[in-house]
Design goal:
Helix content is about 45%, strand content about 15%.
Length: about 210
């Protein structure tokens, strides 16, 4: 497939930054650079290729480590000078072995400290790793191994516990049982290959509907 670079604005060194994002969770995995050749190879192979500014050569992500990144889609920004590459990673993106290169949080808003949705994103990512790697002895691995019927049973049990706790006006118990229900629901979503972001989009769409 021939690449039409007419709308792409490479910099003076012939490079364009590429923000690599997990297609399922939306997590930013890394930021790297592509030149025209590596971009072409990425499109042809369906996996990410980058240009190393330090080594001044092309490199295929995962060629030696096996941690390849299968491309879902690539989007050019409105100015034509940067890319978002959504991928399904086969392993860690960072050379340190971490899933993402972005691990050092330097600021958290007061709202987020008080409790936002980020913990659900973090938990979804962890459950995805459990689903793919199946570490021995992990409870999440056990659920996936047992299959959808077991997961559904747990969701039903936890929903019942939430109802009982609410009926008893037991806020402490309700807090714990709701957390259990959310966790098992995330496990179910992963088993069904349904990203949490799709669910959040439905909520956002409902919220933004014109009020009647």
């Amino acid at each position: 497939m021939s690449l039409n670079t007419g709308s792409i604005r490479f910099d003076e060194k012939g490079l364009i930054p590429a923000v690599v994002q997990d297609a399922d969770s939306g997590e930013v995995l890394t930021v790297a650079y592509m030149n025209e050749e590596s971009l072409q190879k990425s499109i042809e192979s369906g996996e990410t290729w980058f240009y190393s500014r330090s080594r001044q050569e092309l490199w295929h992500k995962g060629a030696t480590s096996g941690n390849t990144q299968k491309i879902v889609d690539m989007t050019l920004d409105c100015d034509g000078d940067s890319l978002v590459v959504r991928v399904k990673p086969a392993g860690p993106a960072c050379h340190t072995g971490e899933r993402s290169c972005f691990n050092e949080k330097i600021y958290t808003s007061e709202t987020e400290k008080a409790g936002g949705t980020s913990i659900l994103d973090t938990l979804e990512t962890l459950i995805k790793e459990r689903f793919e790697e199946r570490p021995e002895g992990a409870y999440t691995t056990y659920l996936f191994t047992e299959g959808v019927d077991k997961i559904l049973k747990k969701v039903g049990e936890e929903a019942s516990e939430v109802i009982i706790a609410a009926k008893n006006r037991d806020k402490e118990e309700l807090k714990w049982e709701t957390a259990d229900l959310l966790y098992h629901t995330l496990v179910l979503l992963r088993e069904q290959d349904l990203p949490l972001s799709d669910v959040m989009s439905v909520l956002e769409e409902r919220h933004n509907r014109p009020k009647k």
